[in-house]
TrEMBL record:
It comes from the Bacteria. InterPro entries: FAD/NAD-bd_sf. This is Amine oxidase domain-containing protein.
Length: 101
């Protein structure tokens, strides 16, 4: 991999694949692709879409949140209102602007 000495990898873990297992799988995959790993610069973990759990959502979290839009001239946007993707964020932002402005 002479054309790029720095490789960035994003991996989705789960309850069975913890940080160290995830790291081992990625390293093994990189070696199979022919990469020589000299140094790991940074390894960071975070929760995916950590905003609302299933139970809270089923209890009408989003209906309550929608009812708060425009109260006290305050508006809520970003991925918490839609989903963790740029397309969903844009779609919701357009909906918000069309509805209130
Ligand atoms: C690793 C990763 C890969 C992803 N890949 C994709 C992909 O391939 N395709 C896709 O569609 N989506 C992808 N996403 C999801 C997408 O990036 C997010 O859903 C989207 O960026 C969320 O937009 P947002 O406006 O809610 O938050 P952000 O884009 O995070 O914007 C929030 C902004 O607010 C700023 N901010 C935070 N606190 C303050 C403060 N107190 N004062 C002032 N500013 C503040 C932050 O610096 C940031 O610029 C990815 C996300 C991650 C983490």
């Amino acid at each position: 991999m002479a054309y790029n000495d720095l490789i960035t990898v994003y991996a989705l873990g789960n309850d069975e694949i913890d940080e160290s297992k995830c790291k081992a799988i990625v390293e093994e995959d990189l070696r199979r692709l022919g990469a020589k790993i000299n140094r790991l610069h940074i390894h960071k973990s975070w929760k995916y879409f950590p905003h609302v759990d299933s139970e809270t959502m089923a209890e009408g979290f989003y209906d309550k949140l929608e009812d708060l839009q425009s109260v006290n001239n305050t508006y809520y946007g970003g991925e918490i209102m839609s989903f963790s993707s740029i397309e969903q964020c844009i779609a919701y932002s357009k909906y918000l602007v069309n509805k209130f402005f």
